[in-house]
Amino acid sequence: GDFVLLTFPGELTCQTGLDIKKASPHDLTFVAGYTNGYIYYAPTAEQLCNVGGAQEDSDCIVAPEWHALYEAKAAEMLRGL
To answer: What per-residue string of b and e applies to 29-44 under the rule 16 or more CB within 10 Å gives b?
Structure first.
């Protein structure tokens, strides 16, 4: 059957994948991290506030706004398919 695949070159959190799947107009949407490179952990803006709570929440190189930008672009691409 038909499915769509979105990729990201880092370790995405479950929340990011769930948000993208929920916004997708396609029933079978797959979100894959660790693709075409690796930029380390990619927590949500909310998770970035959890300094010291978990390594993956506070030990990263992405800016807090990356999450909103990525989800917006992913939704735009999914609507265009």
So the answer is: bebebeeeeeeebbbb
